[in-house]
Specification:
The chain contains 15 helices and eleven strands. It is an alpha/beta fold. The protein folds into two domains: about 160 residues, P-loop containing nucleotide triphosphate hydrolases (Rossmann fold, 3-Layer(aba) Sandwich), CATH 3.40.50.300; about 90 residues, Helicase, Ruva Protein, domain 3, CATH 1.10.8.80. Strand 8 and strand 9 form a beta hairpin. The chain is globular.
Length: about 350
């Protein structure tokens, strides 16, 4: 689904700073592994996702490629682009990133795509009907109510997000294509939870709820009214702040690989994981990547404890089984703050 001409501005969203930061960090470095947004309906989750897409840089793509392959990344080309490149230079065009939504009742074939077995057996050709993962390549994949999907479908999505490749195999016939996307899942915990094994595979997790501050609630209604009356004027009012965020994201994407990640920061992250009794090592990797992305967004040359503190709670919120200090003790944010203060 393409972004509307007048998307509600990202910078006009009142509150929900953690959610907005988690989305920005994944835009800077999608290898963080996506974000799961947990919370009640009507808290701006889908609005924020669509608004983010409007801030991301335009992309160069191979013209006519269903997967939107990057013309300068031959290692990630689909088979069609490889074949076309062997016959001559690939035509190039630009496009805006899109939000691709996964229907809640989507079948596995709708998600991964299908192979025409009859053509494969009779003609020896591999006719492939692309699915949602093909459309999502180099875009944002938005999965609303992810907790209501079949566990197998969620597994498929998370596998593709982690590997950057979607492989479809039917009766000995195999087709692969690039599937690199920014994964955003939302859920209302009151409607059911995700299995812990699936929760852990989301890079970041943010809990959102309706704003309780009186002035902010009034501001939400006032801004929405102005937006509905005159979207063009509203967008123009936020054009400067939108451009500022857009420029910061573009700069952070470019400078992310150059941001130094000191060993003492890695030790601090490992200490937090050990103290919180987190299973496995995924949390360490995600926290390091997220802190590095935050440093890049802040135009810092290297990661420091402030960057770790800004991302740690969204890294560990869905991975902690219980707070180490027991019931009645400090909450997760307080534990993390103490660890960083000691680091």
């Amino acid at each position: 689904m393409a972004i509307d001409r007048y998307s509600y501005p990202f910078t006009a969203i009142v509150g929900q700073d953690d959610m907005k930061l988690a989305l920005v960090l994944n835009a800077i470095h999608p290898a963080i592994g996506g974000v799961l947004i947990r919370g009640e309906k009507g808290t701006g989750k889908s609005t924020a996702v669509r608004a983010l897409a409007h801030l991301l840089p335009d992309q160069q793509v191979v013209e006519g490629c269903h997967f939107g392959c990057h013309p300068d990344d031959p290692e990630d080309w689909c088979s069609d682009c490889r074949d076309r490149a062997s016959a001559g230079e690939l035509p190039v065009t630009t496009r805006r990133m899109r939000v691709v939504e996964l229907p809640i009742n989507a079948s596995e074939d709708r998600v991964v795509g299908t192979i025409d077995l009859e053509a494969a057996l009779k003609e020896g050709s591999r006719r492939f009907e692309p699915g949602v993962l093909a459309e999502a390549n180099r875009n944002i994949l938005y999965v609303d109510e992810v907790n209501l999907l079949d566990d197998h479908i969620v597994d498929v999505l998370l596998d593709a997000a982690a590997m950057g490749v979607n492989t479809v195999e039917r009766e000995g016939v195999s087709v692969s294509h690039p599937a690199r996307f920014i994964l955003v899942g939302t859920m209302n915990p009151e409607e059911g939870e995700l299995r812990p094994q699936l929760l852990d595979r989301f890079g970041l997790c943010v809990d959102v709820e309706g704003i309780r501050d009186l002035d902010q609630r009034v501001a939400i209604v006032e801004k929405r009214s102005v937006w509905e009356d005159d979207p063009h004027k509203f967008v123009q009012q936020h054009a400067e702040s939108e451009q500022d965020v857009r420029a910061h994201i573009a700069e952070a994407i470019a400078t992310f690989p150059e941001v130094e990640l000191p060993r003492e920061i890695l030790r601090l992250i490992a200490q937090i994981s050990i103290a919180l009794e987190v299973d496995g090592h995924r949390s360490d990797l995600v926290c390091a990547r997220a802190a590095q992305a935050k440093a890049a967004y802040d135009s810092a040359e290297k990661v420091n404890t402030t960057h770790v503190g800004a991302v740690a709670e969204m890294v560990f919120a869905h991975r902690v089984h219980s707070v180490p200090f027991g019931k009645g003790g400090p909450n997760l944010s307080e534990v993390i703050a103490r660890m960083i203060g000691q680091g």
